[in-house]
Amino acid sequence: MHLLEVKAVSHSYNNRSFLMRKKGADQVLNGVDLIIEEGTCVGLLGQSGAGKSTLGRIILGLEKPKAGQVLFEGQDIYCADQRTRKHYRRHVQAVFQDSYSAVNPRWTVEQILSEPLENYETMSRKERKGVLIHWLERVGLSEKDLSKYPHQFSGGQLQRINIARALLLQPKLVILDESVSSLDMVTQGVILDLLVELKKELGVAYLFITHDMTAAYHLSDQLAILDQGELVAQFRSKDDFFSSEEKAVQKMRDAMLADHPLSRTIGRPFR
């Protein structure tokens, strides 16, 4: 049984004219099939407008698809009972692109990190604080940061806090939606290395939604390509991406550059 399976998911948004009359529907996703196994990172690649974030919201249970199923451990999350949905919400967490809008600016880090524990765990304040300190240290911060507010951190530091919040319930799957794209290149590399370490340590699976091939290649075990709402390929090995003859894959491949300017050759990255 797969950890998560997206089956024939389609979605569209109603398009309205100037007079607010229905003008048809914009098809965003069309019959998407996607599989994520335990402990595996799938990099979901596509250009802007390909439908990546919409698919992420559907997987998170935030937006019901017009057609298709999202199965978590064999259970359709949109037809599940309350107990199953609560289990799903605990074990599928997310880290979004904008680290600042993902937190309450009036809350301290202790309050931000405590919220999921209060929702899903029963423990004393002392036990809870011990858990928070452990996770802050695990992402490279410290106990003294518990009393600080979001505006006192850089974007990279705050994203570490968001990662800690996503992982402290020890979920089985984390959706990373453009979670490093707003960071500078150096900070991106540090955060990606941290995510690789945590994946190995915890055995957690990731869906890494991105338009950045270099970041996807660094973190992912497998790659999936979304083009104009259709999943045109899912590669069981990320290296298979470079031998694919699919036009959408070739177009994406040809647009990439190698990491170092001296080794840049169009269509031949990662030398």
TrEMBL record:
Residues 4-253 form the ABC transporter domain. Keywords: ATP-binding, Ion transport, Nickel, Nickel transport, Nucleotide-binding, Transport. InterPro entries: AAA+_ATPase, ABC_transp_ATP-bind, ABC_transporter-like_ATP-bd, ABC_transporter-like_CS, Nickel_NikE, P-loop_NTPase. The keyword Lipid metabolism does not apply. Coiled coil: none annotated. CDD domains: ABC_NikE_OppD_transporters. The keyword GTP-binding does not apply. One of its GO terms (molecular function) is ATP binding. GO terms for cellular component: plasma membrane. PANTHER family: ABC TRANSPORTER, ATP-BINDING PROTEIN, TRANSPORT ATP-BINDING PROTEIN. This is Nickel import ATP-binding protein NikE. It comes from Bacillus pumilus (strain SAFR-032). The lineage of its organism: Bacteria, Bacillati, Bacillota, Bacilli, Bacillales.
